[in-house]
Design brief:
Elements lengths: L1 E2 L4 E3 L6 H8 L16 H13 L6 E7 L2 E10 L2 E6 L8 H16 L4 E6 L4 H9 L3 E12 L2 E11 L1
Helix pairs in contact: 1-2
């Protein structure tokens, strides 16, 4: 867990279920996510349960708390691969940049890896711009790398040496 000026990045809790469901049931927020929307609170509960039962399985994967509620998810679900998603209500408020800068600093302090990398759909201009703003460099691209709820997607890769 760590904090930034406005955010707390921490492991998820059972009490976060409704906020997490709001995030994972928003088609627009999930446009470039690896899976489609959750249609029920129960579906989100099933998704959340393994994280609650074994928080050590992803020690660098965090819920983003702002103003007492969860507004996103950011971290390394598998080190050094980075991912993030935010509730549309906080888009354009600098939350992603603040969280990512905090995560980079945290990962440097932890010494868990020597670099971070992200796999971004080339159509996801906002995420690509965020990564570049935070110092990540383009590190290649590939076609048809993942099949998601949108069908086959390409990947642009970004890397930041720690």
């Amino acid at each position: 867990m760590f904090t930034t000026e406005r955010l707390i990045l921490r492991p998820p809790r059972a009490s976060d279920l409704e906020d997490i469901h709001a995030l994972f049931s928003d088609d627009e927020a999930l446009t470039y996510w690896s899976s489609g929307r959750h249609f029920s609170l129960e579906e989100t509960r099933i998704w959340l349960q393994p994280l609650l039962e074994d928080p050590a399985s992803a020690p660098y994967d965090f819920s983003i708390e702002m103003g007492g509620r969860i507004v996103g998810k950011m971290g390394c679900w598998r080190v050094p691969e980075l991912g993030f998603i935010l509730n549309r209500e906080v888009w354009g408020q600098g939350v992603a940049r603040e969280g990512l800068q905090g995560l980079v600093a945290y990962m440097r302090r932890q010494g868990a890896c020597d670099h971070l990398w992200a796999d971004v759909d080339p159509r996801n201009h906002r995420s690509r711009r965020l990564l570049e703003t935070c110092g990540f460099q383009p590190a290649g691209s590939a076609l048809r790398t993942i099949r998601t709820h949108m069908g086959w997607c390409d990947s642009d890769y970004y890397r930041l040496d720690l």
